[in-house]
# Entry
Amino acid sequence: MSVIRITSIAKKFIMALSGLFLIVFLLVHLGVNLLLLSNDHDLFNEASHFMASNPLIQIMQYVLALGFLVHILSGVALTVQNYLARPNRYAKNRPSENASLESRTMIVSGGLVLLFLLLHMRNFFYYIKFGTGPEGGDYVLVTDLFDIWYYTAIYVVSFVILGFHLNHGFQSSFQSLGANNKFWEGIWKKAGTIYSVIIAGGFSVIALYLFFN
Amino acid sequence: MNLTLKIWRQNGPKDKGRMETYPISDVSPDMSFLEMLDVLNESLVAKREEPVAFDHDCREGICGTCSLHINGEAHGPDRAITTCQLHMRKFKEGETIYIEPWRAKAFPVIKDLIVDREAFERIQQAGGFVSVNTSGNTQDANNLPIPKVDADLAFDAAACIGCGACVATCKNASAMLFVSAKVSQFALLPQGKVEAKERVLNMVHQMDLEGFGSCTNTGACEVECPKEISLDNIARLNREYLCATLSSE
Ligand code: SF4
Ligand code: FES
# Structure
């Protein structure tokens, strides 16, 4: 009975688990993208073809979409409920005195990342998935886009914002799952920052490398 | 010191309320914040105006009754203190000070700066206790061996005075720090373990019914808490809740 009733703590678990799942996905995605740095262009083409056709990955695709959906919808629902928990706002409030900017703006950073995600689906996923990209394969599809300066700029800015989102999200998910105390807190926070820098930096460096070459 | 006070005035629960400005002069830096409000109220009474209603009792940081949101922070700019322990030397000459009640759906304003915190009482009644058989042959508590570490952690959690600053400061008006302290103080001790499952499920259920928001781990509560209740307690609450949910029939 208590499992079915979605309590505030159950919502935290849902956010944390879907978040951790997406955190793992980002690492896999970065791994594939790193192949773009190789001089052998077919390497990336093969990898992206594999991701678009392997049956196991096809199933995972739906799990991934579900992961995104759950994370986004419960994030929005939580934000609305939490906003309603304080119908009258303070005339003067100084939230920066006691909480980090990332932790207070997860819905904003999340929303911006979602906008980028939609653009990203349109620009890459759609073509790669349905094989309607340009000649020369997915590698050319990617490098063509990164020739455009403003696309590269949007891409890099989006990943920096995602980095901020992850910097709070990573350590926060362990706290939500109860896997935290004063000893582990330092470790989760450091690991979260390192992870965020790897993700934001990794994707951005690849984009900038392609732009300047 | 000469100061300008901007104070929330609200005639009753139904009134819309508004901020009003009161200049105040000759404030001693050694006064406590509540003494400064006493002086203001005396002057208001002398002018046959309605004094500002605010909560207070012990005035020494023990009872958790005082509850003011001062200049954008719960219990004011100092750390690890209640409003009654705040002194005027923390403010600058000529400063404008905003004084507001705790703001949360679950803490409705009764009048001016006084809010109704009975939601906390109802959460406590839902499970914040240990049932003891008081038939006369109650065992001495010291007969139960308790590791020092656990005893200390339980004691730290028990330091919560139920003031509600955690709710007031949380951007989600979440009561998780309070509930986590009340759950932890028993969950860590053998006496509390017997009823641990029902306790955590019932208290969290009541917390949600009261209309508090959900915790998003910003950590603001821990910073503003006068008793420095640790966020570790929230992690413990989450753990307790997860185990109780998975193992309850
Ligand atoms: S946890 Fe701290 S801030 Fe919250 S009610 Fe207890 S003493 Fe007050
Ligand atoms: S009046 Fe008792 S804690 Fe402030």
Chain A has one domain: 3-89+99-212. Chain A touches chain B at residues 2-3, 5, 7-13, 78, 81-82, 84-95, 97-100, 103-104, 106, 168, 171-172, 175-182, 185 (CB under 8 Å).
